[in-house]
From TrEMBL:
InterPro entries listed in its UniProt record: 5hmC_binding, EVE_domain, PUA-like_sf, THYN1-like_EVE
Subcellular location, record wording: Nucleus
Pfam families according to UniProt: EVE (PF01878)
Tree of life domain: Eukaryota
Keyword entries, A-Z: Nucleus
Protein name: Thymocyte nuclear protein 1
Domain EVE stretches: 45-181
Amino acid sequence: MLSLTRPLSVRPRFAPKPLSLQTSRCLPLLIYQASNKPMAKGKKSYWLLKTEPNEWSWDDQRANGGVSQWDGVRNRQAVNNLKSMRPGDLCSFYHSVSGAASRRIVGVVRVTKPWYLIGDGDIDGAVDVKEIGELQKHVELKEIKKAAEKEAELKGFALIKQPRLSVVPVSEWVWEQLCEMGGGFSEGNELADAKEE
């Protein structure tokens, strides 16, 4: 989302800001799942983050040590999903573009800092995420929809049911299916299973 040639003052609305490799302290938050039930202590959650690659691509995310501030989200449900994230949660990095053939999950990022306010207001906020690895095989939306024809839980996946939502909760079962479709992801020179991270 962020053009490296553009000054930050004219950053697109949905562009995460790159961060330095130094992280500031995380503020404690009471975290809720999308269902608004308190999460079990120590239990990891899974998410899908959408971005348009002409504004913020996987290559942009990998730059600057793979760390960025995920901000610019305005939809109330998507903001609530961001507020539910906590450090250690894993997110699929999804390229969302106008052509259906290009919509796909390309990699995995980890939440490194939970929701915090940015700017002068009390509405705009962000989470920080760090690149973990690229999927061995990008998982296209049409592949997910085809699998959903056979699996009821995939049919209820918010990526399919609410296609305009930019921050989507992912059940553990769906996460495992998506990772299997993508053949795991590469972290450095090793092949890793995104569920194990």
